[in-house]
Amino acid sequence: MRLESNKWTAWLLAIVIAIVLPARALADAPKEIRMGYPGVGVGNRPAAAGNAVATMHLRGMLEDEFKKDGIAIRWSFLRGAGPAVNELYANNLLDFSLLGDLPSIVGRASGLHTRLLAGQSVRGNIYVSVPADSPVRSVADLRGKRVAVAKGTATHLAAGKILEQFGLTEKDVRLINMENNVATAAIVTGDIDAAFGGSNWLGLRDQGVSRVIFRTTGGDPKFTSNSTFIGNEEFIKRYPEITQRVVKTVLLAARWLAEQESKPEPVYQLWTRTGFTYASYKEDWTNESMKYKTSPLIDPYLYARYEFQITEAKRLGLIRQTFDFKEWVEPRFLEAALRELQLEKLWLPRDESGQPKG
Predict the structure, then answer these.
(1) In this model, does residue 8 exceed pLDDT 90?
(2) Across residues 207-216, what is the average pLDDT?
(3) Which of 71, 96, 117, 335 would suit a FRET pair with 35, their CA atoms being 20 to 30 Å apart?
């Protein structure tokens, strides 16, 4: 009888565990994952391009990953770019985001509790555009001119260094804080004399309403921008398993980009959902390695790029104090995802100079 009683007790215990544990796990999962992106497409479209996070959004990969769990994915594409993303983190309204180097550095230096989870892009090209009928032929000609840049963004940091290269500082121009879509309209109407931005200026040039007077393609990478995938430290600590799945999905998007290395046309076509042109993406990425530039690895090159940018941001007065980059990095989720997906050999780690090891 006692043996039979013990069997019933074990059976009932098994039923309780089977019911209670999944319910407890479900109760501990978030109802939604709040994703942020520093920018919008043409006409404020909620879409972006150029990296794995943007590609993951366009392909609906994160939604597919969490659909079976009933966890919603809420994306915020912000006209205010990097500073607007930091504002959401400051108010605990965001869980993960792509973020350019300067705004993420500013956020960390000012005390935001974020962690860097994966690389996203290096050597992002910067362009300087002027109206088509402008007499300006060089960045050196911008002294005293009305120059637009989205302040607090990765482009802003690059702009400061590009101006220096031509003997100028921000004080030598009339620097106007202006997001991309507004700057595009202002170039067309002649309300500004020049603007710093990305490959979107190539499409405007092709329409015959602007000229590109400077571009970083093929030049010194110190004038280019970088971005990473970061997360809210509170969310990461509370939901490590969810964080692991998010990072794994980012990695899957990066793998898809790497697989298009030899024939990137499907990537450019996908990215046109932003409203920017296929031709502008193709030109911007000509002679560039998509696999190299969108590597998710947190390797010595990413360390070197960000340590340099932290120093430059301090030198140019964009942050008041620096911080230890190593303490910001949280590589365990990326490393676990690389092992799980057996992708340890897909991307070669790059040394401090940017050369692939091996």
Answers:
(1) no
(2) 96
(3) 335
Main-chain phi, psi angles of 345, to 5 degrees: -110, 5
CATH domain 31-123+225-340 topology: D-Maltodextrin-Binding Protein; domain 2 (3.40.190)
Q: How far is 46 from 24, CA to CA, in rounded Å?
A: 35
Q: 158 is written with which tokens?
A: 């690059």
> Is the predicted pLDDT of residue 289 greater than 60, yes or no?
yes
DSSP summary character for residue 153: S
Sign of CA dihedral 281, 286, 289, 291: positive
The pTM of the full predicted model, rounded to 2 decimals, is 0.90
Q: Is pLDDT at 156 greater than 50 in this prediction? A: yes
- Cα(256)–Cα(267) distance, integer angstroms: 9
Q: pLDDT confidence of 27, banded at 50, 70, 90? A: low
Residue 12 has pLDDT above 60, yes or no: no
Query: Rounded CA gap, 158 and 212, in Å?
Result: 16
Q: Phi, psi (5° rounding) for residue 231?
A: -140, 160
What are φ and ψ of residue 146, in 5° steps?
Answer: -85, 110
Tell whether the model's pLDDT for residue 3 goes beyond 70.
no
From the list 223, 226, 233, 224, the residue with the least C-alpha distance to 303 is: 226
Q: What is the DSSP letter of 356?
A: B
How many other CB atoms are found less than 10 A from the CB of residue 314?
A: 15
The three-class DSSP label of residue 75 is strand
Candidates 187, 102, 119; CA nearest to 153 is: 102
Question: How many CA atoms within 13 Å lie on the side-chain side of 51?
Answer: 27
42 CB-near residues (< 8 Å, 6+ apart): 181, 274, 275, 276
| 189/194 Cα distance (integer angstroms) | 12
Q: How far apart are CA 37 and CA 95, in angstroms?
A: 11
